[in-house]
Specification:
Strand order of the largest sheet: 2-3-4-5-6-7-9-10
Bound molecules: beta-D-glucopyranose
CATH topology: TIM Barrel
Number of domains: 1
Helix content: 25-40%
Largest sheet: 8 strands, parallel, barrel
CATH architecture: Alpha-Beta Barrel
Radius of gyration: 20 Å
Oligomer: single chain
CATH class: Alpha Beta
Distance between the termini: 25 Å
Shape: globular
């Protein structure tokens, strides 16, 4: 039982490719067409949020949600190189207006793992020469939608994208693999972020801009090296333009201040054994086998804040719990942990508002507060969704909401 800190707002998060649906020519549609999604699903289906956003925002309003982190899809906005779709931009305009009319404040992600195939075919994020494609897209977005959105995330989880697509060979593009390419992709993304940061600040210096960093606790042999390569080194490049070896500063940016807040995505920890990565044997697991480790969130936030002391937004935290057995306890444990840290955590966005297309896991891995029936597209609030709404309403967790939602919600025994 606890009261939320006065300055912390609760919201929900999603990403364009994971919820919108529609037949697009993107890197993820291509990946699905090539049969790489484990359950055979595709982002063409997703949640049909593109057509059902009114219903989704109404449901958010009913839950008392006033903060929404969402993404826009580059593939829709620029389906062919250099040709921007007014239809898509106008649709996003109506969508954001509807969000705002429902009392929901937008935090907009400009790139969340997905982009047009023409960009991929040009070499995607492996080539620093491709950065102007991204900045041109960002300028178009600002000119069309910039008056409606005051907070931005440029790039989502550069490290996860680079590792899965260029080192582990599990995500697109999965060619030219290796650590060298993986680090190069993170460097190019950091450079693109700084360019986009500057563009948005030129458009309106009062706007707040950051990137969403995937952080985890690394333990075991070699943990220090991996923490530097995938976490701290990336954070220094993005937040301060400090590109330490092996990261490369492709535009020779001066060191400076390139974020207004720290976006933190936290899920779990990694136990390192040489070049092998796994989980602990003694912690409860979610339905993807990831350790449930709330203290890790506190540790990661403290470490990141020590590198760059800016206001903190937890831009993602959540869990894959297909039957909603332990999600309420997970939320309770993580909120309880960060509520006590004494750092300026201003927002917490639960991942995710609804079940959605979970990348290579497809539709079968459910992270949502709202259940999606993928055949009928019916939305149903889960028990954990009712719990989250109660936390927002009461600005904390009371004895009776604890008894109603958390007391009977248990992790599987280890
Ligand atoms: C990503 C989300 C994803 C979530 C759960 C994060 O790495 O930003 O897109 O759905 O984790 O796997």
């Amino acid at each position: 039982m606890f009261k939320l800190n006065d300055n912390m707002k609760l919201g929900v998060a999603s990403a364009s490719m994971q919820v919108e649906g529609g037949e697009l020519n993107s890197n993820w549609h291509d990946w699905a067409d090539r049969g790489f999604i484990k359950d055979g699903s595709s982002p063409s289906n997703a949640n049909d949020h593109w057509n059902r956003y009114e219903e989704d925002f109404k449901l958010m309003r009913e839950m008392g949600i006033t903060e929404y982190r969402f993404g826009i899809e580059w593939t829709r906005i620029e389906p062919t190189e250099g040709e921007f779709s007014d239809e898509a931009l106008n649709h996003y305009r109506r969508m954001i207006e509807c969000m705002r009319d429902n009392g929901i404040r937008p935090l907009m992600t400009l790139w969340h793992f997905s982009h047009p195939m023409w960009f991929e075919n040009e070499g995607g994020w492996l080539k620093s020469e491709n950065i102007p494609y991204f900045t041109r897209y960002v300028s178009v977005v600002l000119n069309s939608l910039g008056d409606l959105v005051e907070e931005y995330i440029t790039i989502n989880e550069p490290n996860v994208f680079a590792v899965n697509g260029y080192l582990f060979n599990e995500w697109p593009p999965s060619n030219n693999n290796g650590l060298v390419q993986c680090v190069k992709v993170m460097s190019v993304l950091a450079t693109a972020h700084i360019e986009a940061y500057k563009l948005i600040k030129e458009y309106n210096n009062d706007y707040l801009v950051g990137f969403a960093h995937h952080v985890r606790v690394f333990k075991g042999v070699g943990a220090g090296l991996f923490r530097f390569l995938f976490q701290d080194g990336v954070a220094l490049a993005f937040t301060k333009g400090e590109f330490k070896f092996p990261f490369v500063n492709y535009r020779r940016f001066k060191k400076g201040d390139y974020v207004d807040f720290l976006g933190v995505n936290y899920y779990s920890q990694t136990i390192v054994k040489g070049m092998e990565f796994g989980f602990s044997t003694d912690l409860p697991k979610n339905d993807l086998g990831w350790d449930i480790y709330p203290e890790g969130l506190v540790r990661c936030v403290r470490e990141l804040y020590a590198l760059c002391p800016k206001p903190i937004y937890i831009t993602e935290n959540g869990t894959c719990d297909n039957d909603d057995r332990f999600r309420s306890r997970y939320i309770y444990d993580h909120l309880n942990a960060i509520n006590k840290v004494g750092l300026p955590i201003l927002k917490y966005y639960y991942w995710s508002f609804s079940d959605n297309f979970e990348w290579v896991e497809g539709e079968s891995s459910r992270f949502g507060l709202v259940h999606i029936n993928y055949e009928t597209m019916e939305r149903t609030l889960k028990e954990s969704g009712r719990f989250y709404a109660s936390i927002i309403k009461n600005r904390g967790i009371t004895r009776s909401t604890y008894d109603e939602f958390v007391a009977g919600s248990h992790y599987d025994s280890v």
